[in-house]
Amino acid sequence: MSARETPLSADTLPPEDRALVEGVLAGRRRALAKAITLIESTRADHRARAQHVLNALLPQTGNAIRVGISGVPGAGKSTFIEALGVWLIGQGHRVAVLAVDPSSSITGGSILGDKTRMETLCQKEEAFIRPSPSAGSLGGVAEKTREAMLLCEAAGYDVVIVETVGVGQSETTVAGMVDLFCLLQLPNAGDDLQAIKKGIVEIADMVAINKADIDPKATAVARAQWKNALHLVRRASPNWEPPVLALSALKKEGMADFWAQVEKYRDALTASGEFAQKRRRQSLAWMWQLIEAGLQQRFREHPGVRESLPRLARSVEDGLTTPAAAAHALLARLQH
Ligand code: GDP
Q1: Which residues does a 6 A CB cutoff place in the pocket of ligand 1?
Q2: Strand 65-71, strand 159-165: pairing
Q3: Are 29 and 167 members of one domain?
Q4: Are residue 179 and residue 76 in the same domain, yes or no?
Q5: Res. 10: pLDDT tops 80
Q6: Are residues 56 and 69 in the same domain?
Q7: Predicted TM-score of the model (pTM)
Q8: Chain mean position to CA 184
Q9: What is the Å distance from ligand 1's center to 288 Cα?
């Protein structure tokens, strides 16, 4: 290993960052919030500092169970996460809640974050709640959330919940960063058909029908439909059949059942070796995503590419050059 590749320990950090690392390790929420702000910064010097802080903390990460929760706006995500979080704290857990909300970068507003959310959970010493970063693309938002998740683990949170809205790509992205991905559904048939169309069923490790208190009969129908739908898709693991639960987040009913399933999942996949395997796969996929994003940025910033791109793009638009020939020529510019 060359000197450049040697992982940095906390001892080699400047005093300000060492204090940050120590604060996170001591589980201080202010230090954790500050460290997350550092990783969310787009300034190049902050990025470099953030990577050193993360590297120093890396040995202390990985000890939480990572749970993804997705659902359409109004499904009851924040009500559920608050009820579950409070219940978990009652069981002796420490709970961090993060969010991936790509809408915040597109609209400037946020589907997840505008209203005052999870007020009871917020006030608990054992909870840490952080709204979605609003850094550019979904990939950018997801990268920051992944890093924030590691920081929360280093700070001793043993449950990390990542929330996202049931629109577009964000569900697949969140499923790619958590151990268990749960769809929070409403008891009406329209939803499951949509989910099947979007290919979301395949990535669900668990389905929870919320608002069961409103209409128990419709909830029973929805559960049966979901069980059928889940039978039709190929299972992610031979050792896990995704369960379909009924809950009432408002009445705080079903929390113990929900958590029993999360633990069952972790135990089953740990016993088969798939739990660790999934994390290894996710880490590698993350590395490749960053490489691809980095290569694309270098490509776009390369002077030769910038010089040739407008002309070749026009030529492709006008049907004078094939897309393949143009791509080949542009990639060749990278060598000069
Ligand atoms: P989110 O947009 O998915 O975060 O949904 P919210 O948690 O903000 O919930 C949307 C609305 O549904 C709120 O008015 C909640 O009080 C209500 N709600 C959430 N869970 C339940 C439930 O289990 N039963 C009933 N009756 N209402 C619920």
Answers
A1: 71, 73-79, 210-211, 213-214, 248-250
A2: parallel
A3: no
A4: yes
A5: no
A6: no
A7: 0.88
A8: 16
A9: 37
